[in-house]
Amino acid sequence: MTPALLALLALIVVLVLGAVRPDLNVGVLATAVAFGLGMGLLGLGVAEVSAFLPAQLLLTVVGIALLFELARSNGTLDQITRAVLRLARGNSRVLPLVFFLLTFALSALGPGNIAATALLAPVAMGIAARAGINPTLMAILVCTGANAGTFSPAAVTGGINAALLQRIGLEEPGLPVRIFLAVAAIQSVTALLAYALFGGYRVGRPVEGVSVGRVALNPAQRLTLGAIGLFVLGVMVFNVPPVAGAFVLAALLALLKLGDLEQSMRQLPWSVVMLIGGISILMGLLERLGSLELLTSLLARYSSPDAVNALLALLSGLASVGSSSSGVVMPLMVPLAPELLEKLGGGDLVRAVIAIDFGSHMVDVSPLSTLGALCMAGLPEGADRSRLFRQMLLWGLSMALVGALLAFVFLDLPQ
């Protein structure tokens, strides 16, 4: 058995263990395997293996998350939520669409898909039960809205994606925004499909108490909202590096005591940081060993240039069923795309990244994923949890196939 094949099998074992043992952090396993392979097979030192750690990528995740945890701690995100909820005015037909737009906006502003879902899922699922809205529909639109916004360059996942684009040589300034809009458009198609299939247009019960009063921001919240606006404007219009903008503004908010820095530091997604760091270290080592070239050769053998984006979306979706979409699947799949296209004789690398990006996030409605689990947890007592679990699981798993079909229609056919 060659070292390249041995390392590839080790990666598969790590991913399978992460899928069957949700109590284990795949990043910790990947880091341990990387040190074992690097020091055992290649004779590398600790510093050489550690050099595979993607420092800029991890700083981007921490900086953006810290900025929006500060905004959460002083109530700014809650005020944004109340402001948007006023738009629905208790109309049950538009409530699912309002929550789709709200999670989209919050996710795109910077908190990302998990934070936006965690903030809104309890409110959305409670309102769905009171208004007679199908809870599966509400869960799908909340999760899909969060994922539609999460590739914004101002969001955590968007920052991860931008760093991966640079890693494979795609450094066009406006490219992250183009990919964000493309992913948002495709995710919106599935949201509209769900709205039609689950009868969102039917009139439910009026909901009392949904139309809130006038939103009043205190001085700290106004300044925080201004900082968020500056961050989004700087990243999306003036191409300010997200890592720099996030840390500068987070430091400013902390200096002015506009948020609880100590509490925000404790709430940072350290498990996601470990996921991304560990997988990236292992992937760097696999690249040194030639394992990635072996993997792309295997994929190319069963691929076709006419349907390569559909294949990438399908593989990304299946891998995401038991793994983190942004922490594991994207760092795994995006670096494979250039060599895969080269072996197939050419293709559009940007379209391949788009296929991986939305394919990896399409299945997140499943209750086995973080977003789906947050919606399950938000369902009020007395509701049929087993029925919701079955429907969300079926929808989530089917999205791997739907994602492949959409990739073929929107990305493969127009080539």
UniProtKB/TrEMBL annotation:
<feature type="transmembrane region" description="Helical">
    <location>
        <begin position="139"/>
        <end position="165"/>
    </location>
</feature>
<feature type="transmembrane region" description="Helical">
    <location>
        <begin position="227"/>
        <end position="256"/>
    </location>
</feature>
<feature type="transmembrane region" description="Helical">
    <location>
        <begin position="268"/>
        <end position="290"/>
    </location>
</feature>
<feature type="transmembrane region" description="Helical">
    <location>
        <begin position="53"/>
        <end position="71"/>
    </location>
</feature>
<dbReference type="Pfam" id="PF07158">
    <property type="entry name" value="MatC_N"/>
</dbReference>
<feature type="domain" description="Dicarboxylate carrier MatC N-terminal">
    <location>
        <begin position="1"/>
        <end position="149"/>
    </location>
</feature>
<keyword id="KW-1133">Transmembrane helix</keyword>
<keyword id="KW-0472">Membrane</keyword>
<feature type="transmembrane region" description="Helical">
    <location>
        <begin position="392"/>
        <end position="411"/>
    </location>
</feature>
<keyword id="KW-0812">Transmembrane</keyword>
<feature type="transmembrane region" description="Helical">
    <location>
        <begin position="28"/>
        <end position="46"/>
    </location>
</feature>
<feature type="transmembrane region" description="Helical">
    <location>
        <begin position="91"/>
        <end position="109"/>
    </location>
</feature>
<feature type="transmembrane region" description="Helical">
    <location>
        <begin position="310"/>
        <end position="334"/>
    </location>
</feature>
<dbReference type="InterPro" id="IPR009827">
    <property type="entry name" value="MatC_N"/>
</dbReference>
<feature type="transmembrane region" description="Helical">
    <location>
        <begin position="177"/>
        <end position="198"/>
    </location>
</feature>
<protein>
    <recommendedName>
        <fullName>Dicarboxylate carrier MatC N-terminal domain-containing protein</fullName>
    </recommendedName>
</protein>
